[in-house]
Amino acid sequence: MNKLIYLLFIITFISCNKSDDSPVSEFAGNYKIVSIISEKAVDMNNDGIVSNDVYLEIISPYHLNSTKIIEDYYSFDFYYAEMRPLKYQTNNAQFANFSIPCQHIEYTSDGSPFLAFYLQEFIFYTYEFTDGDEVILTSDSDHDKQFGCINSMKRTGKDTFVLNMNMNLFDFKTEKWIDAPIQIAYQKIPDKE
């Protein structure tokens, strides 16, 4: 009799575990930004050249002034979007942290703007899937409004998705902030076993 109770307990326990094949578990993981394209050309690295390739503007050397150039100012290799729940987490909440680099501009004593650093923003979201490729995002925070807003998220493949958003970008050519429609593409990073 004890063996039968033990066997029933094991069967019940195994059948109650969440499936690793659920849409959430397949989607969950870390994602790297592979491109950022803007509908408006902008000079974000102060080299005097405007471009629609925001990704390239961010990773290119930053020109502090005509004589001082800073190499390796930003690297996408250290900042990833995180779609939870990750497999090592016990909380099954569907959180999304996009870690989008946003400019923090300061001004010299003579009023010249310069890029102080990049902030990692758009990090407090929850997500849910629709019947199609669209993903519904929700945020209870107004914090990101100063940087822009995410308009939509769409899965483009098993391991890829895109964000369509409006983002405030500082253009060194005009020395003004512009509201630019942009698209950010993400690629899933394989899990390290």
From TrEMBL:
Protein name, as recorded: Uncharacterized protein
Species this chain originates from: Bacteroides intestinalis
